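Gamma-aminobutyric acid receptor subunit pi structure dump, as promised
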Amino acid sequence: MALFVSGGTVFTVLLISRLLESSMLNAEVKEGEILPPTIQRLMKGYNKYLRPFFDNGPVTVGMSLDIASIDTISEINMDYTATIFLRQRWTDERLVFEGNKSLSLDGRLVELLWVPDTFIVDSKKSFLHDITVENRLIRIFPNGTVLYALRITTTVACNMDLTKYPMDKQTCTLQLESWGYNINDVMFYWTRGNESVSGLDSLQLAQYTVEDHYTSVSEAIYETGHYPKLVFHFELKRSILYFILETYVPSSLLVVLSWVSFWISLSSVPARICIGVTTVLTMTTLMMGARTSLPNANCFIKAIDVYLGICFSFIFGALIEYAVAHFCTLTHSDAHMLMYGHHMHDFDDEMNGILTTISTHNRAKRRKEPAATPSSAPASTELAVRPSSPSGSEPKPEASPPEPTNWCLTVLATLRKILRSINCCHVENPHHIDNYSRVTFPLSFVMVNLLYWTYYLYF
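C-alpha cells r here:
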C-alpha cells in the first residue's frame, strides 16, 4: 500500500513538470511568432546583460534633452519640478543589419536590449509616464545605432541664494550620471553641445524668465571610481512686478498713511494713536504674510525683509514722534507756569529790596538833620563843594551797592536756555516737532529708497 502511494506521488510530480515545460515552450513559440524575422535574427545570441564593445573599450552615449515644462519652483523646499524628454543614443555592433531604413520597435521590447543605467543625480522624486503605455521609444538603425527616448517628470534639488529675493537670479542644474559603469566602460557626451537642450525658449513660467542656459561635461568622483557626468545649467530671473504690486506698494502706502498724523492736532489724542497703532499692526500682518512663502532660515536676510523692516521703522517712528510731541506739550505748559512763578517771585524780591532801601535812606536822613542845624560852617562847606562837581549836578547822598540777585537770575536764565536747547523735551514750541517731521520723514524715506534700490538692483 505504501509503495502504491509513493508511486502515485512520483507520477503526479512528473506530470506537473511535463505540463510546465510544455507551457514554457508554447510561450517561447508565441514570443518568437510576435517578433519579426529581422528582430529574431538580431536577438539570436544577444545578451542584454553585456554592454556593447565589452572587450573593445568604452561605449559612448550621446544625450539630448527637450524641456517640456517646468511646473513648480519652490523656495521653501529649494527644488523645481520639470517634465523632460531624455534621448540617449549609442552604437551596438551586435545590432547591425542590412538595409537603409531604421526599425521602430515597441517600447516594451526595451527589456530585450542593453540600455545605459543613466540616473538624475539631485532627483528627489521621479516617475516614468505610463499612460496609456510606458512612454518609451526604441529605434534601431542599420549601422547598429540605438535611439532610446523617455518621458520623465522629476523633482530636482536646486541650491538657491535668497539674499536678494525678490530681485534674485537662481542658477539650477540637471545632472546626469551613470550609476554602475565608470569612465572605463561608458562615456557620456552632448550630441550637439549647447544646442542639445531645447524647449526653454517657449516656456512660460509664473515668476521667472529663463535668461541663459548652457551645458558642460565633467566627471563624478566617488569612492568606487570615476563616473561620466553631464550637467545642464540654466539661469532663472525672478519677475519683480508681482512683488511690487503685492508687497512694496502696500508697505510704502502704509508709511505714507502714518504721516497723516503729522497734520492732526496734538490735542487729538485718539485720532493720532489710532492711526499709529493701526499702521503698525497692518505692517506687522504684511510682514508675516510675506514670510509664509519663504524658508524660515536665519542665514537668509532677504531684500524684501530689509525693505519691510525699513517701512516698519518709519511707521513706528511716526508713532514715537507723537509720543515725544505730546510729552513736550505737557512739560511745556508746566515749564510756563514754573517760569511765571519764578518771575513773580523775582518781582516780589525786587520790590521788597527797593522798599527796604528807601526806608533805610529815610532813617539816615532823619539822623543827620538835628546835627546840621546849630552850625553853619558845614553848610557853607557843603555849598562850596557842590560847584566843584564836574557835572554840575547834585551828587547822590550814597552809592547803592550792586545787587547780586539780578546777576544770579541772569546766570540761571542762561543756563535754563542752554539746557532747554539740549533737552528735546523742553522745546520752545512743541508744534514745531510736527512741522519738522512733515519734511524730514518724507525726505528720509526717499533717500533710503534710493539707496535700497540702487544697491539691490546694481550691486
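The CA atoms of residues 410 and 416 lie 10 Å apart.
lmk if u need the other ones
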